[in-house]
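[step 3/7] fold_predict: job queued, chain A
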Amino acid sequence: MEHRVLSPTAILGYGFPSQSFGRGIERNPDIIAVDAGSTDPGPYYLGAGESFTTRDAVLRDLSLLLPAAVDGGIPLIIGSAGGSGASDHVDWTVALIKEIAARLRLVFRMGIIYSDIAPRDLLGYWEAGRVRALRSVPELSAATILGTIRIVAQFGVEPIQQALSQGCQVIVCGRCYDPAPFAAAAIAKGFDPGLALHMGKILECGAIAATPGSGSDCVLGTLGPQSFTLEALDPRRTFTPLSTAAHTLYEKSDPYMLPGPGGALDLRRVRFDALDDGRVRVSGSRFVPEELPTVKLEGVRQIGYRTICIAGIRDPILISQIDTVLESTRLTVSESWRDDPDVAIIFRAYGRNGVMGSREPLSDRWCHELGLIIEAIASTQERANSACAVVRSTLLHVGYPRRKTTAGNLAFPYSPSDIECGPVYEFSIYHLLTPDGPSTLFPVQVQEVRP
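[step 4/7] structure written:
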């Protein structure tokens, strides 16, 4: 008994070669599954309700996936629709699917699974003691919950299995556990959940685990009773035990345990064996259920508006004392903004600890030039614009020891130099919730799609 899953790309909208996809369809997959979301781009997209992949790119991918799935009678499952999986993102994805279906005159049953939780509802769970913080995350308060503008919960395989049992051929998921769309059907058929979820963890990133890796190419996973195999669908790529094992460590704080909704993957006994034709067989993965199953919450709040300015610095005298000069500039500007304590000024000096900040192990190294980002965050866009302008003009002319000129500390690649970035969000909720059941928060809505 085998179960074949076709993964076309790492993120819906990243693209994939039609030739690779065609090879995958020729292998008669049981499921086409594609991840569409991540918290990697940060909190903005959840807060703003926008997709971090473009409409044209997602439309192109769906225009290939949808007819192949419907005409071939293959379920198509989309995870974390629209990037962040909130209702705005799900509705946006559903609208694109209906647009394609009308153009191609496709008929199918579609399941839609929302994952939003209203702040008031979460407050009730919190008051009942059913919400706890992840490691290194502050405990919640009522004020934090009610100040959060959008909250989603990562569901597991169960809501997707419900949609499949109702005959849904296309399933659009809100925020869900990344491996769930790839594993749900297999687990429902009785395949080992540890193997199914481990295969899903690798497939959700497309061909990134292949050699050479790519987030824009197709992979086929074949699940059996005791193991699963992975193969690239582009002849230029292969899977190796090293590349597969390396990707198994991807996005993990613990090399052996991977937590998810309802339990964790135990990877301590996993084997990676090379097969012919650039394939890899994986065995030994095990799923350990939680005594009290949980789902992860992701919520954001708006903290203001951002304006940035990008500049270059080439003066070695200034570079040698940049930390002191930037701090002096910050203090000077702060004097002008005493009446607005909410204004935040941030410097990112790339080439001088710009990536790792205080954690940089090579902080004693110096460079011949710096790329400087001046960032101002304030309660309104106008205040952010003003704060950034004051910092920029102050730093442009600030004096420092051994200076040989009276202006020109900064070189600006753009005119205008200051760039409005709009609303700023931060994660305010990154916690675990114990729900009444794995599907109670995530009802399936079924629609019949016709031209």
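[step 5/7] annotate
The longest helix spans residues 55-72.
The chain has a mean pLDDT of 94.
exit 0
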